[in-house]
Amino acid sequence: MENASTSPRAATPTYRVAALADSQRPAVTLFTARARALSAEQWVTPRAPGKWAPYQEAEHLVLAYRAFGLAMRGERELEVQVTPERMQQLRERVLPRILSEDWFPTGARSLPEAVPTAEPRDRDTLLDELTTAAREFEATLLSAAARDAERPVRHPYFGPLLLTEFAIVAAAHTRHHAMFLPGVS
């Protein structure tokens, strides 16, 4: 029986991108399920002083998925957020862990275009926006792969990433923010 790792198609970049595009759904489902289980008070309460509330975590993910989609479509280039030396360090030390261990670092600054508002947002509306933004990101990944699966897209911290790498990083980023929701250990 053929599976994703033994299939001849698994070796093609387009097939790998398609498989990884689907990885956004479980990550978003995890986040939204945990967010929907929160009380109204938990939804608007920051996890610690100076940290985001769950609605801000959700809004950040919406904005990040949208920004990443714009970059993949070539409509906007994401501005580099670190020095070339720091980017090289991140590519050598952090990126391999994200790609191989389902791990994501804490404490990084958000992209300016993905900073959430201070005004609480309706949970259902925002979580629907997150689901939509992730689906649009998946569609953009597939479209970009159909055009050129090996074309790199610049990530603001890691530099040029292949679409497969970008898909893994985006899903890990979403799971990372799901872990900040109350009641998650």
Q: Separation of termini?
A: 38 Å
Specify the CATH architecture.
Answer: Up-down Bundle
* The CATH topology: Four Helix Bundle (Hemerythrin (Met), subunit A)
User: Quick one: how many beta strands?
Assistant: 2
Look at the structure and name the CATH superfamily: dinb family like domain
DSSP summary: helix tally: 7
Low-confidence stretches: 1-10
Report the β-strand fraction as a percent range.
under 5%
> Pairing-aware structural class of the strands and helices?
mainly alpha
Mean pLDDT over the residues = 90
Following the backbone from N to C, one meets helices and strands in this order, namely HHHHHHEEH
What does this structure look like?
With 185 residues, the protein is mainly alpha-helical. It has a single domain, classed as Four Helix Bundle (Hemerythrin (Met), subunit A), CATH 1.20.120. Helix content is 57%, strand content 3%. It has a two-stranded antiparallel ribbon with strand order 1-2. The longest helix has 26 residues, at 123-148.
Describe the secondary structure blueprint for this structure.
Elements: H1 13-21, H2 24-36, H3 40-44, H4 54-72, H5 84-101, H6 123-148, E1 153-155, E2 159-161, H7 163-178
Key phrases:
two-stranded antiparallel ribbon; mainly alpha; Four Helix Bundle (Hemerythrin (Met), subunit A); 185 residues; disordered N terminus
Summarize the structure.
The chain has 185 residues and is mainly alpha-helical. It has seven helices and two strands; from the N terminus they run H-H-H-H-H-H-E-E-H.
